[in-house]
Amino acid sequence: MIDGAGGLAHLLGFTALLRRSGFAVAPEQTIAWLEAIEVLEPEEIGGVRRAARATLAPPPERFGEFAALFDAHFLGARPPKIESRAAEEEPLSAAEAASAGPEPLFGDAIRASGAKATAAERLSARQFATGDDGEALHRFARALPTRAPRRRGYRGRAARGGAQADARRMFRDAMRNAGEFVKIRRRRRRMRQRRIVLIVDVSGSMKHRTQAHLAFAHVLARAAAAAEVFTIGTRLTRITRALRLRSREQALATAARLVADWDGGTRIGEALSAFLAIPRFSALARGAVLVVLSDGLERGDPTAMGDAVARFSRIAWRTVWLTPLAADPAFEARTAGLMAARPHLDELGDGGSLDSICAHVLDLARERPA
Known about the structure:
- It contains 14 helices and ten strands.
- It is of the alpha/beta class.
- A seven-stranded mixed beta sheet has the order 1-7-6-5-8-9-10, sandwiched between helices.
- α12 links the parallel β8 and β9.
- α2 packs antiparallel against α3 and α5 packs parallel to α14.
- The longest helix is centred in the N-terminal third of the chain and has 17 residues.
- It starts with a helix and ends in an 8-residue tail after the last helix.
- About 6% of the residues have low confidence.
């Protein structure tokens, strides 16, 4: 049990320590940890440790650091030497349509022009103009149901051939034929569309492309059998439910109210790490196609961005990064963030126009490169 306000404050102090040490801990993970302690009622500190590791989900390569911080906070051990985060950078948070999200956190410095990448968080509202974005999205909506990548499902269907016998149908036939098996029935696993997880960069450096990218996201969420849409900037926001509304104007207006970090800073590595740290979100990427629409201008530590993309590459079926910078024929991944992520990407392609984005997504079903 959590013993009073003092015990609660002590537990919350540990998650604050983790954030200062560079761990991506979302508010809902903290709540899950407290709920786990309430349910399990551990009688020793080992139970609290196991609950913390299960719900706060530190990356495997930092298990030792996590354990050292736990011992320092709860057992009074000597704290490890860890470089703390810059004081002006608030911990990245996650939100989705089901809740209003955490209390807004304001950064001190805001670069409104969007010309350069920055880590400062700028919380603001956004209005989108109405209008048609051309024939590209209409063609994409019509083509996606038949050209989206597919996988074998767990349920079967009757088939003329196949390695698996359909025992259920054979026994039904036998009941109608005096217990005799007169024909061997076959079955195959059904094919299902793979989930497409789309992550849209809404930071200041991408502000001129945000509306077009969200229009594409709306069509994807409506046309795909399974799709999830997130935005990243200085926080991570899930907007899938909003984009499933039939009217694009209504969908984008709803998304505009959900996302708080329009045209702000760029903390891609932390946002992707927060996605992976939340079990409900990371499960969506398992076996899915991950598509990131971003210029990759990371202001923070490029190593975090590379590590996050590496983890995505291990759980996703394909990992695709589409950047408007690749519209230049002479483009090469020269920024620190893209250079760190490039070895783990299945494709780094042109995201400079809606036509190129649609073409890349429709081409996802092709064979993976060797």
